[in-house]
Amino acid sequence: MQLTSPGFTSGSVIPDMYTCKGQNISPELEWSEAPEGTKSLALIVEDPDAPKGTYTHWIAYNILPGTRTLTGNFANIGGARAADGLMQGRNDFGKTGYGGPCPPVGDRPHRYYFRIYALDVKLKLEPGASRAELEEAMEGHIIGQGELMGKYQVH
């Protein structure tokens, strides 16, 4: 699966509007068709360069298998449970939904990985699940994935 965003290209700088310095809204995401047998999709956004280890910025799961895009600002308008069954979990900011890049001022550029996973099951998780709960539920069920990486630094 190929994951892209109209807001930035893979390896490029993430625009301020998607960060804590800007509007802190989620970027629009688009992906290619999921593999045959996909029953749901999951999304994890993380910063592996955070000072205390990998920091989770967003998790979403039970995205319908035919879905090919998430609109921008989705996390702030979609709530923990969207009408189409999509659910969002807790990020490391302690909130449900999206939390944009927010590295320490003056720190080197951090990498932010957006990963979409095609799963052969619909997950039995409630809204607000933790990343650990999501990863445990996904274990052994990933049949495809895509990745988009952007960078961000606060000056």
Topology:
Blueprint: E1 3-4, E2 29-31, E3 40-47, E4 55-63, E5 69-70, H1 74-78, E6 87-88, E7 110-119, H2 131-138, E8 142-152
Antiparallel strand pairs: 1-2, 2-5, 3-4, 3-7, 4-6, 7-8
Describe the fold and architecture.
By secondary structure, this protein is mainly β. It has one domain (3-152): PEBP-like (Phosphatidylethanolamine-binding Protein), CATH 3.90.280. The chain is 8% helix and 30% strand. The chain has two helices and eight strands, in the order βββββαββαβ. It has helices at 74-78, 131-138; strands at residues 3-4, 29-31, 40-47, 55-63, 69-70, 87-88, 110-119, 142-152. A five-stranded antiparallel β-sheet has the order 6-4-3-7-8, with helices on one face. The longest helix is centred in the C-terminal third of the chain and has 8 residues, at 131-138. The chain is globular, with a radius of gyration of 15 Å.
Short description:
With 155 residues, the protein is mainly β. The protein has two helices and eight strands. It is globular and about 45 Å long.
Main sheet: strands, sense, barrel? 5 strands, antiparallel
What's the quaternary structure here? single chain
Pairing-aware structural class of the strands and helices?
mainly beta
In the CATH hierarchy, what is the architecture at level 2? Alpha-Beta Complex
